[in-house]
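testing teh design pipeline on a random one, pls ignore if ur not involved
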Protein backbone atom coordinates (compact mmCIF):
# COMPACT_ATOMS: atom_id res chain seq x y z
CA UNK A 1 0.00 0.00 0.00
CA UNK A 2 1.36 3.40 -1.00
CA UNK A 3 0.50 6.84 0.38
CA UNK A 4 -0.81 9.13 -2.38
CA UNK A 5 -1.19 12.92 -2.19
CA UNK A 6 -3.92 14.55 -4.29
CA UNK A 7 -3.62 18.30 -4.78
CA UNK A 8 -6.50 20.17 -6.40
CA UNK A 9 -8.49 23.28 -5.51
CA UNK A 10 -11.65 21.59 -6.84
CA UNK A 11 -13.15 19.57 -3.98
CA UNK A 12 -15.23 17.39 -6.32
CA UNK A 13 -12.14 16.46 -8.33
CA UNK A 14 -10.12 15.73 -5.17
CA UNK A 15 -12.81 13.41 -3.82
CA UNK A 16 -13.25 11.61 -7.14
CA UNK A 17 -9.53 10.95 -7.48
CA UNK A 18 -9.29 9.89 -3.84
CA UNK A 19 -12.09 7.36 -4.27
CA UNK A 20 -10.32 5.67 -7.18
CA UNK A 21 -6.97 5.60 -5.36
CA UNK A 22 -8.54 4.07 -2.23
CA UNK A 23 -10.30 1.47 -4.36
CA UNK A 24 -6.87 0.53 -5.71
CA UNK A 25 -5.76 -0.25 -2.16
CA UNK A 26 -3.75 2.84 -1.31
CA UNK A 27 -4.03 5.45 1.41
CA UNK A 28 -4.75 9.07 0.48
CA UNK A 29 -4.06 12.54 1.81
CA UNK A 30 -5.65 15.67 0.29
CA UNK A 31 -4.52 19.25 -0.21
CA UNK A 32 -6.61 22.13 -1.57
CA UNK A 33 -3.65 24.31 -2.59
CA UNK A 34 0.08 24.28 -3.27
CA UNK A 35 1.16 25.64 0.11
CA UNK A 36 -0.69 22.89 1.99
CA UNK A 37 0.75 20.29 -0.37
CA UNK A 38 4.31 21.39 0.43
CA UNK A 39 3.53 21.21 4.17
CA UNK A 40 2.07 17.71 3.86
CA UNK A 41 5.13 16.42 2.00
CA UNK A 42 7.29 17.70 4.88
CA UNK A 43 5.17 15.85 7.46
CA UNK A 44 4.17 12.62 5.70
CA UNK A 45 6.00 10.07 3.53
CA UNK A 46 4.33 10.49 0.14
CA UNK A 47 5.03 7.92 -2.60
CA UNK A 48 3.23 9.64 -5.49
CA UNK A 49 1.22 12.75 -6.18
CA UNK A 50 -1.52 13.95 -8.53
CA UNK A 51 -0.99 17.70 -8.84
CA UNK A 52 -3.40 20.23 -10.35
CA UNK A 53 -1.69 22.77 -12.58
CA UNK A 54 -3.89 25.84 -12.04
CA UNK A 55 -4.44 26.78 -8.39
CA UNK A 56 -4.58 30.09 -6.53
CA UNK A 57 -1.41 31.08 -4.71
CA UNK A 58 1.39 28.61 -5.43
CA UNK A 59 0.53 26.98 -8.74
CA UNK A 60 1.28 23.42 -9.77
CA UNK A 61 4.46 24.20 -11.70
CA UNK A 62 5.98 25.99 -8.71
CA UNK A 63 5.05 23.09 -6.41
CA UNK A 64 6.63 20.71 -8.92
CA UNK A 65 9.77 22.83 -9.12
CA UNK A 66 10.22 22.92 -5.34
CA UNK A 67 9.53 19.24 -4.81
CA UNK A 68 11.85 18.06 -7.59
CA UNK A 69 14.71 19.81 -5.79
CA UNK A 70 14.29 17.33 -2.93
CA UNK A 71 16.36 14.12 -3.06
CA UNK A 72 13.30 12.12 -1.90
CA UNK A 73 10.76 13.73 -4.22
CA UNK A 74 7.67 11.60 -4.95
CA UNK A 75 6.61 10.70 -8.46
CA UNK A 76 4.35 13.52 -9.65
CA UNK A 77 1.69 13.50 -12.38
CA UNK A 78 0.42 16.95 -13.36
CA UNK A 79 -3.32 17.37 -14.09
CA UNK A 80 -4.84 20.18 -16.10
CA UNK A 81 -8.10 20.95 -17.87
CA UNK A 82 -6.27 23.22 -20.33
CA UNK A 83 -3.22 21.47 -21.75
CA UNK A 84 -0.98 23.64 -23.91
CA UNK A 85 2.36 23.00 -25.56
CA UNK A 86 3.96 25.43 -23.13
CA UNK A 87 2.70 23.95 -19.86
CA UNK A 88 3.23 20.39 -21.11
CA UNK A 89 6.86 21.05 -22.05
CA UNK A 90 7.56 22.95 -18.84
CA UNK A 91 6.01 20.29 -16.60
CA UNK A 92 8.03 17.51 -18.23
CA UNK A 93 11.20 19.63 -18.13
CA UNK A 94 10.75 20.13 -14.39
CA UNK A 95 10.53 16.38 -13.86
CA UNK A 96 6.84 15.48 -13.97
CA UNK A 97 6.24 11.77 -14.47
CA UNK A 98 3.37 12.56 -16.81
CA UNK A 99 1.14 15.44 -17.91
CA UNK A 100 -2.55 14.46 -17.98
CA UNK A 101 -5.67 16.19 -19.24
CA UNK A 102 -8.83 16.28 -17.13
CA UNK A 103 -11.09 14.46 -16.88
CA UNK A 104 -9.07 11.28 -16.48
CA UNK A 105 -10.80 7.91 -16.57
CA UNK A 106 -10.58 5.33 -13.82
CA UNK A 107 -8.54 2.84 -15.87
CA UNK A 108 -6.17 5.53 -17.12
CA UNK A 109 -5.65 6.76 -13.57
CA UNK A 110 -4.93 3.23 -12.34
CA UNK A 111 -2.39 2.65 -15.12
CA UNK A 112 -0.60 5.94 -14.49
CA UNK A 113 -0.46 5.30 -10.75
CA UNK A 114 0.93 1.80 -11.30
CA UNK A 115 3.67 3.17 -13.54
CA UNK A 116 4.44 5.96 -11.09
CA UNK A 117 4.87 3.58 -8.17
CA UNK A 118 7.01 1.28 -10.29
CA UNK A 119 9.25 4.22 -11.18
CA UNK A 120 10.32 5.02 -7.64
CA UNK A 121 14.09 4.71 -7.25
CA UNK A 122 15.28 4.11 -3.73
CA UNK A 123 18.34 6.36 -3.82
CA UNK A 124 19.55 9.48 -5.59
CA UNK A 125 20.49 9.29 -9.26
CA UNK A 126 24.06 8.45 -10.10
CA UNK A 127 26.36 11.05 -11.59
CA UNK A 128 27.26 10.35 -15.19
CA UNK A 129 30.70 8.81 -15.47
CA UNK A 130 33.49 10.89 -17.01
CA UNK A 131 35.93 7.98 -17.05
CA UNK A 132 37.08 6.63 -20.44
CA UNK A 133 35.13 3.75 -21.92
CA UNK A 134 36.24 0.32 -20.73
CA UNK A 135 36.35 -2.93 -22.67
CA UNK A 136 33.13 -4.82 -21.91
CA UNK A 137 32.43 -8.32 -23.18
CA UNK A 138 32.42 -11.98 -22.19
CA UNK A 139 31.51 -13.48 -25.58
CA UNK A 140 34.00 -15.87 -27.14
CA UNK A 141 34.86 -13.27 -29.78
CA UNK A 142 35.67 -10.59 -27.20
CA UNK A 143 37.54 -13.02 -24.96
CA UNK A 144 39.79 -13.76 -27.93
CA UNK A 145 40.39 -10.02 -28.35
CA UNK A 146 41.14 -9.64 -24.62
CA UNK A 147 43.64 -12.52 -24.70
CA UNK A 148 45.40 -10.99 -27.70
CA UNK A 149 45.64 -7.64 -25.90
CA UNK A 150 47.22 -9.37 -22.91
CA UNK A 151 49.83 -11.08 -25.09
CA UNK A 152 50.84 -8.00 -27.11
CA UNK A 153 50.43 -5.25 -24.48
CA UNK A 154 54.06 -5.26 -23.31
CA UNK A 155 55.54 -5.13 -26.80
CA UNK A 156 56.07 -2.19 -29.14
CA UNK A 157 54.54 -4.03 -32.09
CA UNK A 158 52.31 -2.02 -34.39
CA UNK A 159 48.67 -3.12 -34.20
CA UNK A 160 46.03 -2.94 -36.93
CA UNK A 161 42.42 -2.96 -35.73
CA UNK A 162 39.76 -3.81 -38.28
CA UNK A 163 35.99 -4.06 -38.08
CA UNK A 164 32.77 -2.30 -38.96
CA UNK A 165 32.16 1.28 -37.89
CA UNK A 166 31.00 1.46 -34.28
CA UNK A 167 32.51 -1.82 -33.07
CA UNK A 168 34.73 -0.11 -30.48
CA UNK A 169 38.13 0.06 -32.13
CA UNK A 170 39.24 3.10 -30.14
CA UNK A 171 38.16 1.41 -26.89
CA UNK A 172 40.38 -1.56 -27.78
CA UNK A 173 43.24 0.79 -28.67
CA UNK A 174 42.93 2.46 -25.25
CA UNK A 175 42.89 -0.94 -23.55
CA UNK A 176 46.14 -1.89 -25.31
CA UNK A 177 47.67 1.40 -24.17
CA UNK A 178 46.45 1.15 -20.58
CA UNK A 179 47.71 -2.42 -20.12
CA UNK A 180 51.01 -1.86 -21.94
CA UNK A 181 54.51 -0.57 -21.27
CA UNK A 182 53.60 2.94 -22.42
CA UNK A 183 50.62 3.49 -20.12
CA UNK A 184 52.37 6.32 -18.29
CA UNK A 185 52.74 8.21 -21.54
CA UNK A 186 49.95 10.00 -23.44
CA UNK A 187 47.31 8.39 -25.62
CA UNK A 188 46.75 10.57 -28.69
CA UNK A 189 43.95 9.75 -31.14
CA UNK A 190 43.77 11.19 -34.68
CA UNK A 191 40.85 10.53 -37.02
CA UNK A 192 42.51 10.56 -40.42
CA UNK A 193 39.15 10.74 -42.22
CA UNK A 194 38.04 13.87 -40.35
CA UNK A 195 41.03 16.05 -41.25
CA UNK A 196 41.36 17.63 -44.71
CA UNK A 197 44.19 16.08 -46.72
CA UNK A 198 46.13 19.37 -46.94
CA UNK A 199 46.14 19.71 -43.14
CA UNK A 200 46.79 16.08 -42.17
CA UNK A 201 50.56 16.30 -42.59
CA UNK A 202 50.74 19.25 -40.20
CA UNK A 203 48.37 17.50 -37.78
CA UNK A 204 50.55 14.40 -37.65
CA UNK A 205 54.08 15.78 -38.03
CA UNK A 206 53.71 19.41 -36.92
CA UNK A 207 55.07 22.52 -38.61
CA UNK A 208 57.47 25.39 -38.06
CA UNK A 209 56.55 29.03 -37.87
CA UNK A 210 56.03 30.47 -41.34
CA UNK A 211 56.02 27.04 -43.03
CA UNK A 212 52.83 27.99 -44.87
CA UNK A 213 50.24 30.74 -44.93
CA UNK A 214 48.61 30.94 -41.52
CA UNK A 215 51.42 29.13 -39.66
CA UNK A 216 51.99 31.97 -37.19
CA UNK A 217 53.59 29.73 -34.56
CA UNK A 218 55.43 26.44 -34.33
CA UNK A 219 53.15 23.45 -33.77
CA UNK A 220 53.97 20.02 -32.43
CA UNK A 221 52.39 17.14 -34.36
CA UNK A 222 50.56 14.10 -33.03
CA UNK A 223 53.62 11.84 -33.33
CA UNK A 224 55.57 14.10 -30.98
CA UNK A 225 52.59 14.72 -28.71
CA UNK A 226 52.34 10.95 -28.20
CA UNK A 227 56.05 10.52 -27.45
CA UNK A 228 56.69 7.60 -25.04
CA UNK A 229 53.00 6.78 -25.31
CA UNK A 230 50.55 5.58 -27.96
CA UNK A 231 49.43 7.18 -31.21
CA UNK A 232 46.08 5.90 -32.49
CA UNK A 233 45.53 6.51 -36.20
CA UNK A 234 41.83 5.92 -36.76
CA UNK A 235 40.41 5.37 -40.26
CA UNK A 236 43.86 5.08 -41.78
CA UNK A 237 42.27 3.50 -44.84
CA UNK A 238 40.90 6.92 -45.82
CA UNK A 239 44.40 8.45 -46.08
CA UNK A 240 45.67 9.59 -49.49
CA UNK A 241 48.59 7.89 -51.23
CA UNK A 242 51.03 10.79 -50.73
CA UNK A 243 50.39 10.81 -46.99
CA UNK A 244 50.70 7.03 -46.85
CA UNK A 245 54.29 7.29 -48.08
CA UNK A 246 55.18 9.71 -45.28
CA UNK A 247 53.49 7.54 -42.65
CA UNK A 248 55.43 4.53 -43.95
CA UNK A 249 58.72 6.37 -43.51
CA UNK A 250 57.76 7.47 -40.00
CA UNK A 251 56.92 3.88 -39.02
CA UNK A 252 60.08 2.43 -40.57
CA UNK A 253 62.61 4.98 -39.32
CA UNK A 254 60.78 6.35 -36.23
CA UNK A 255 61.56 9.80 -37.56
CA UNK A 256 59.10 12.56 -38.48
CA UNK A 257 59.73 15.76 -40.40
CA UNK A 258 57.59 18.79 -39.46
CA UNK A 259 56.40 20.87 -42.39
CA UNK A 260 59.21 23.36 -43.02
CA UNK A 261 61.45 21.75 -40.40
CA UNK A 262 64.12 19.12 -39.84
CA UNK A 263 63.70 15.41 -39.06
CA UNK A 264 62.94 14.60 -35.43
CA UNK A 265 63.29 11.12 -33.89
CA UNK A 266 60.21 9.84 -32.06
CA UNK A 267 59.57 6.94 -29.71
CA UNK A 268 55.90 6.03 -29.91
CA UNK A 269 53.73 2.97 -30.29
CA UNK A 270 51.36 3.14 -33.26
CA UNK A 271 47.93 1.52 -33.38
CA UNK A 272 45.97 1.95 -36.60
CA UNK A 273 42.33 1.20 -37.30
CA UNK A 274 40.03 1.06 -40.30
CA UNK A 275 36.59 -0.15 -41.30
CA UNK A 276 37.80 -0.66 -44.87
CA UNK A 277 39.21 -3.81 -46.50
CA UNK A 278 42.83 -2.72 -46.89
CA UNK A 279 43.82 -5.76 -48.96
CA UNK A 280 41.13 -4.83 -51.44
CA UNK A 281 42.58 -1.31 -51.43
CA UNK A 282 46.01 -2.78 -52.20
CA UNK A 283 44.58 -4.75 -55.14
CA UNK A 284 42.74 -1.68 -56.44
CA UNK A 285 45.77 0.58 -56.02
CA UNK A 286 44.29 2.90 -53.38
CA UNK A 287 46.44 1.64 -50.50
CA UNK A 288 50.16 0.98 -50.45
CA UNK A 289 51.08 -2.67 -50.10
CA UNK A 290 54.28 -1.91 -48.15
CA UNK A 291 52.34 0.25 -45.66
CA UNK A 292 49.73 -2.49 -45.28
CA UNK A 293 52.34 -5.02 -44.20
CA UNK A 294 54.04 -2.46 -41.95
CA UNK A 295 50.71 -1.92 -40.15
CA UNK A 296 49.64 -5.56 -40.24
CA UNK A 297 52.20 -6.73 -37.64
CA UNK A 298 49.54 -7.72 -35.10
CA UNK A 299 46.03 -7.69 -36.62
CA UNK A 300 42.94 -7.69 -34.39
CA UNK A 301 39.51 -7.98 -35.96
CA UNK A 302 36.51 -6.74 -33.99
CA UNK A 303 33.32 -8.62 -34.87
CA UNK A 304 30.01 -6.78 -35.27
CA UNK A 305 27.77 -6.62 -32.21
CA UNK A 306 25.32 -8.99 -33.91
CA UNK A 307 27.97 -11.71 -33.58
CA UNK A 308 28.47 -10.95 -29.87
CA UNK A 309 25.03 -11.75 -28.50
CA UNK A 310 26.35 -12.48 -24.99
CA UNK A 311 27.74 -8.94 -24.77
CA UNK A 312 24.59 -7.01 -25.68
CA UNK A 313 22.88 -6.88 -22.26
CA UNK A 314 26.09 -6.27 -20.23
CA UNK A 315 27.02 -3.45 -22.61
CA UNK A 316 23.54 -1.94 -22.35
CA UNK A 317 23.68 -1.98 -18.54
CA UNK A 318 27.18 -0.48 -18.66
CA UNK A 319 26.00 2.40 -20.85
CA UNK A 320 22.99 3.04 -18.61
CA UNK A 321 25.29 3.31 -15.60
CA UNK A 322 27.62 5.67 -17.47
CA UNK A 323 24.62 7.86 -18.32
CA UNK A 324 24.19 8.58 -14.62
CA UNK A 325 21.04 6.57 -13.95
CA UNK A 326 19.98 3.54 -11.96
CA UNK A 327 17.40 2.60 -14.56
CA UNK A 328 17.24 -1.13 -15.22
CA UNK A 329 16.34 -3.32 -18.16
CA UNK A 330 13.28 -5.51 -17.76
CA UNK A 331 13.37 -9.05 -19.11
CA UNK A 332 11.30 -8.07 -22.16
CA UNK A 333 13.63 -5.13 -22.87
CA UNK A 334 16.68 -7.38 -22.67
CA UNK A 335 15.04 -9.83 -25.09
CA UNK A 336 14.22 -6.95 -27.45
CA UNK A 337 17.85 -5.79 -27.43
CA UNK A 338 19.07 -9.29 -28.20
CA UNK A 339 16.62 -9.74 -31.08
CA UNK A 340 17.62 -6.49 -32.74
CA UNK A 341 20.32 -6.69 -35.43
CA UNK A 342 22.43 -3.63 -34.38
CA UNK A 343 23.58 -2.44 -37.80
CA UNK A 344 25.27 0.48 -36.00
CA UNK A 345 27.06 -1.88 -33.62
CA UNK A 346 28.17 -0.83 -30.12
CA UNK A 347 27.88 2.86 -30.95
CA UNK A 348 24.19 2.42 -31.82
CA UNK A 349 23.61 0.53 -28.56
CA UNK A 350 25.32 3.28 -26.58
CA UNK A 351 23.17 5.95 -28.23
CA UNK A 352 20.01 3.91 -27.61
CA UNK A 353 20.79 3.57 -23.89
CA UNK A 354 21.56 7.28 -23.58
CA UNK A 355 18.20 7.98 -25.22
CA UNK A 356 16.14 5.82 -22.87
CA UNK A 357 18.12 7.07 -19.86
CA UNK A 358 16.78 10.54 -20.68
CA UNK A 359 13.31 9.71 -21.99
CA UNK A 360 12.09 6.93 -19.67
CA UNK A 361 10.73 8.23 -16.37
CA UNK A 362 10.35 4.87 -14.65
CA UNK A 363 13.02 2.77 -12.94
CA UNK A 364 12.54 -0.06 -15.43
CA UNK A 365 13.03 0.13 -19.18
CA UNK A 366 10.55 -2.07 -21.06
CA UNK A 367 10.43 -3.33 -24.63
CA UNK A 368 7.80 -0.68 -25.42
CA UNK A 369 10.44 1.98 -24.64
CA UNK A 370 12.68 0.51 -27.35
CA UNK A 371 10.31 0.47 -30.31
CA UNK A 372 12.38 3.19 -31.97
CA UNK A 373 14.97 0.49 -32.76
CA UNK A 374 12.65 -1.18 -35.25
CA UNK A 375 13.07 -0.41 -38.93
CA UNK A 376 15.30 2.63 -38.50
CA UNK A 377 17.68 1.51 -41.20
CA UNK A 378 16.95 -0.11 -44.51
CA UNK A 379 18.08 -3.70 -44.51
CA UNK A 380 18.20 -3.94 -40.70
CA UNK A 381 16.08 -7.07 -40.91
CA UNK A 382 18.91 -8.70 -42.82
CA UNK A 383 21.21 -8.40 -39.81
CA UNK A 384 20.61 -11.80 -38.27
CA UNK A 385 22.08 -12.50 -34.85
CA UNK A 386 24.79 -15.12 -35.00
CA UNK A 387 25.40 -17.47 -32.09
CA UNK A 388 27.91 -19.86 -33.66
CA UNK A 389 27.98 -23.63 -33.22
CA UNK A 390 24.68 -23.95 -31.32
CA UNK A 391 21.25 -25.13 -32.34
CA UNK A 392 18.14 -23.13 -31.47
CA UNK A 393 17.19 -25.02 -28.25
CA UNK A 394 20.73 -24.63 -26.90
CA UNK A 395 20.82 -20.94 -27.75
CA UNK A 396 17.45 -20.31 -26.11
CA UNK A 397 18.53 -22.22 -23.01
CA UNK A 398 21.68 -20.14 -22.74
CA UNK A 399 19.69 -16.93 -23.08
CA UNK A 400 17.19 -18.10 -20.45
CA UNK A 401 19.96 -18.97 -18.01
CA UNK A 402 21.64 -15.60 -18.58
CA UNK A 403 18.41 -13.70 -17.86
CA UNK A 404 17.74 -15.74 -14.71
CA UNK A 405 21.23 -15.13 -13.35
CA UNK A 406 20.87 -11.43 -14.13
CA UNK A 407 17.48 -11.20 -12.35
CA UNK A 408 18.92 -12.94 -9.29
CA UNK A 409 21.89 -10.58 -9.25
CA UNK A 410 19.69 -7.49 -9.42
CA UNK A 411 17.30 -8.81 -6.76
CA UNK A 412 20.06 -9.67 -4.30
CA UNK A 413 19.28 -13.41 -4.72
CA UNK A 414 15.66 -12.90 -3.65
CA UNK A 415 13.86 -15.55 -5.69
CA UNK A 416 10.44 -13.94 -5.30
CA UNK A 417 11.72 -10.62 -6.61
CA UNK A 418 13.66 -12.37 -9.38
CA UNK A 419 10.51 -14.20 -10.51
CA UNK A 420 8.64 -10.88 -10.60
CA UNK A 421 11.37 -9.30 -12.73
CA UNK A 422 11.22 -12.25 -15.13
CA UNK A 423 7.40 -12.15 -15.19
CA UNK A 424 7.10 -15.83 -14.22
CA UNK A 425 5.74 -17.52 -11.10
CA UNK A 426 8.10 -18.58 -8.34
CA UNK A 427 7.50 -22.29 -8.78
CA UNK A 428 8.55 -22.09 -12.43
CA UNK A 429 11.68 -20.20 -11.40
CA UNK A 430 12.53 -22.95 -8.88
CA UNK A 431 12.25 -25.55 -11.62
CA UNK A 432 14.54 -23.59 -13.92
CA UNK A 433 17.09 -23.02 -11.13
CA UNK A 434 17.24 -26.78 -10.67
CA UNK A 435 17.45 -27.37 -14.42
CA UNK A 436 20.44 -25.05 -14.85
CA UNK A 437 22.11 -26.02 -11.58
CA UNK A 438 21.96 -22.46 -10.25
CA UNK A 439 22.57 -22.34 -6.52
CA UNK A 440 21.14 -19.29 -4.76
CA UNK A 441 23.22 -18.12 -1.82
CA UNK A 442 21.67 -15.87 0.82
CA UNK A 443 18.20 -16.51 -0.57
CA UNK A 444 15.67 -14.23 1.10
CA UNK A 445 12.76 -15.51 -0.96
CA UNK A 446 11.55 -18.26 1.39
CA UNK A 447 8.59 -20.55 0.86
CA UNK A 448 6.30 -18.31 2.88
CA UNK A 449 7.14 -15.13 0.92
CA UNK A 450 4.76 -14.18 -1.87
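output:
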Amino acid sequence: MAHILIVDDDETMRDALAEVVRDLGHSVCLAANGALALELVEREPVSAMFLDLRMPGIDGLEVLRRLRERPDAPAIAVLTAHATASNTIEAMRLGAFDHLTKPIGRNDLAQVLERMLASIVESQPLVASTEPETLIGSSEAMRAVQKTIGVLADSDATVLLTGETGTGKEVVARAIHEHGLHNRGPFVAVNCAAIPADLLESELFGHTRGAFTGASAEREGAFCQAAHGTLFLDEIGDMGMAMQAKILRALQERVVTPVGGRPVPVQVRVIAATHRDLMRGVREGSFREDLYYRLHVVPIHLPPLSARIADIVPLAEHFLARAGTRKRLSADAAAHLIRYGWPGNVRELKNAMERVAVMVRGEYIHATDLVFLQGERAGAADHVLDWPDEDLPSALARLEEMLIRRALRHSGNNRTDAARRLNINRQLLYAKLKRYGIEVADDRGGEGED
